[in-house]
Design a protein that fits this description.
The structure is a single chain. With 435 residues, the chain is α+β, with helices and mostly antiparallel strands. The protein folds into two domains: 149 residues, Bactericidal permeability-increasing protein, domain 1 (Super Roll); 242 residues, Super Roll (Bactericidal permeability-increasing protein, domain 2). Strands 1, 6, 7, 8, 9, 10, 11, 18, 19 and 20 form a ten-stranded antiparallel beta sheet that branches. Strands 12-13-14-15-16-17 form a six-stranded antiparallel beta sheet, sandwiched between helices. Strands 2-3-4-5 form a four-stranded antiparallel beta sheet. Strand 13 and strand 14 form a beta hairpin. InterPro entries: Bactericidal_perm-incr_a/b_dom (IPR017943), BPI_fold-BPI/LBP (IPR051660), Lipid-bd_serum_glycop_C (IPR001124). GO terms for molecular function: lipid binding. This is TENP protein.
Length: 435
């Protein structure tokens, strides 16, 4: 089975993305702002002695020149459409030359960055150009000339991306596997390098699922998915979008994991059912509790319309007594439509089934003769209406991790359901010290 599933997954490896996100200019400004303290720490380490011999071009006279303060006054990230990002950093340096007077200098770094996919399939931030400059803010021209020679600012460009908040470690964390149930995991994989436009940085993601450590095949996407235009108009830091196919894939993976093979207790017993179905009296001489066991008859799917999401479950329900071993009395097909409630807390999408909106029951097999549909509904419909959503909600109680990077969570989240996709505008919020 594992070999077969692996082959099937490979056959589906060219499927289109089913979710994605766009980091807006507001989100980019937030990331730049929280990177300023980090950049200052790195520059202090580089400029104030930890690697001083490499940065200060020493001579018998100049080696006593010492940078004794580093202050990042500005750090910005600008979008360069169809190319990448421009990083600009201004740093005030306090320099003590051979005299006792501290001189002030300004270090400026302008670097062009872009994100590409490495051979391992991870996104990686790469520096494509870097120009450092240094100038005095008050000093004689002679002192300025000497200091330009003494500070080897080019070394800063060797690892300029380190001045941002651990970007490559954060990008790798995007592809972490997240558990949904103990046996089922989800992973978000980028299909290509992000697209940079005036509206932001757009990334398309492909959802993959594993059950018991083995990748599972998913239904083919009926249409290619791309980020909706409304995502780029968001005033939030980030807009996530999930296609209808994403949700159908999620429930199909849960089906493969056996999540919908449910055992449902009922208020009925074999004696109370025998009052309505007389043939049952010959099957059971004692009174046993009646149990409903469900299996998926056909793969579930999700329908998204404006303002609502509906889960379609196609079950076969075996009705029987559970002692000493389960003995089926009858089987029926149940086509169930239940509304889905969607929300996001921290970095997890909360999905819950609301009351069943529609249900169709039909007899599939019976050991007690033909049974009218109306009698099936009278006996079993209340239990199904109550227990099926409750058990689906128990399965989904932990929520499903949405694409995110480590150390960050989402705030000011809203979830808007449109036809064919769900849009989640939100703000980034740093939660932990990184790097």
């Amino acid at each position: 089975l594992s070999i077969l599933l692996s082959l099937l997954v490979h056959a589906h490896s060219t499927r289109s993305p089913n979710c994605g996100g766009i980091l807006t200019p507001a989100g980019l400004r937030y990331f730049a702002e929280i990177s300023k303290p980090h950049a200052e720490i790195i520059l202090r380490q580089e400029l104030m002695g930890l690697t001083g011999p490499d940065l200060i071009l020493s001579s018998s006279k100049s080696s006593r020149n010492e940078i004794n303060s580093v202050k990042v006054t500005d750090l910005s990230l600008l979008l360069i459409p169809d190319a990448g990002l421009r990083l600009s950093i201004d740093v005030d340096l306090g320099v003590t030359p051979t005299s006792s007077t501290t001189k002030a200098m300004r270090l400026s770094v302008v670097a062009d960055l872009h994100v590409e996919m490495n051979p391992e399939g991870n996104l990686e931030l790469v520096t494509s150009a870097c120009k450092p400059t240094i100038e005095e803010t008050w000093s004689s021209e002679e002192t300025r000339s000497k200091m330009v020679k003494k500070i080897n600012v080019d070394k800063i460009c060797l690892e300029v991306s380190k001045l941002l908040l651990s970007p490559n470690e954060l990008l790798i964390s995007l592809t972490t596997q997240f558990p949904i149930t103990p046996s089922c995991q989800v992973q978000y994989l980028p299909l290509a390098a992000p697209v940079v436009s005036e509206q932001g940085i757009t990334i398309s993601l492909q959802t993959t699922f594993q059950v018991a450590g083995v990748g599972v095949p998913l239904p083919a996407s009926p249409m290619p998915f791309s980020m909706p235009e409304s995502a780029s108009s968001s005033s939030s830091h980030l807009a996530l979008a999930f296609s209808e196919h994403f949700y159908t894939s999620l429930f199909c993976a849960l089906e493969i994991a056996g999540a919908f093979n449910m055992s449902i207790p009922s208020q009925l017993t074999t004696v109370t059912m025998a009052q309505k179905i007389t043939q049952m009296g010959s099957l059971f001489q004692e009174d046993f509790p009646v149990i409903l066991q469900t299996v998926v008859r056909s793969s579930p799917w999700v329908v998204l319309e404006e303002g609502k999401a509906v889960l379609k479950l196609f079950l076969t329900i075996h009705v029987g007594a559970g002692s000493p071993v389960f003995q089926s009395i009858l089987s029926m097909n149940a086509d169930i439509s239940a509304g889905l409630l969607l929300g996001v807390a921290d970095t997890r999408m909360k999905i819950s089934a609301a009351a069943i909106q529609d249900i169709e029951l039909s007899l599939a097999a019976s050991d007690v003769g033909p049974i009218p549909a109306a009698l099936l509904e009278e006996l079993l419909l209340p239990t199904i209406r109550e227990e099926v959503p409750a058990q689906v909600n128990a399965i989904l109680s932990e929520g499903v991790a949405v694409p995110h990077i480590s150390g960050f969570t989402y705030s000011n989240v809203s979830v808007v359901i449109h036809k064919d996709y769900v849009l989640v505008p939100c703000n980034l919020e740093i939660q932990a010290a990184i790097g």
